[in-house]
Structure prediction request, 208 residues.
Amino acid sequence: MLFWNLLTNSPFCAMQDFSLYFQLGWQHILDWKGYDHILFVMVLCGTYAIQDWRKVLILVTAFTVGHSITLALSVLSIIKVNTPLVEFLIAVTILATAMANILIPITKQKGVSLKYVLALFFGLIHGMGFSNYLKSLLGKSSNIVAELFAFNVGLEFGQVLIVLGILILSFIFISIIKVKKRDWNLFLSSAIFGIAFIMAAERISAAF
Prediction:
């Protein structure tokens, strides 16, 4: 028993646990079965070009802060999550962000103050969505804080991959194919708006 306790509390075992939950985190956000989170990151950052990376960094940081807070609170059972309602609200966050992109052209956007607030607030909602999956993984684990941290870092890694992918896609269309930035914005935002509208319609009956 003493040997087992030393083994499970060893730095090697801790690194294994971190690696496991880090991997589960990035795999979860990149899983196409849960594509709603991918869509949100795409519509949040997809209207910017690579040279706008500072603005994108602010947006991603705001989203990270938001979902880190509610992910922790939910996993630690400080707040309770109504899963159907959260899933519906996640679809609404995508709808609202896409609509903001469509109604406020890039040329008229001054800074990212409004989007920063939206990303922070919507991040709070997405964090509750992430928590359901993590709770199912943790079970009766006694090392929740360390595993929560590893999972969250994994989520951020996956999120960075999505952002890089969408910025490269924007670069290809705007700089190489020579699509106007406004047209690219309208195309991407409208397409995601349509998907999110169907998603919200399918989830609303379960939420209320």
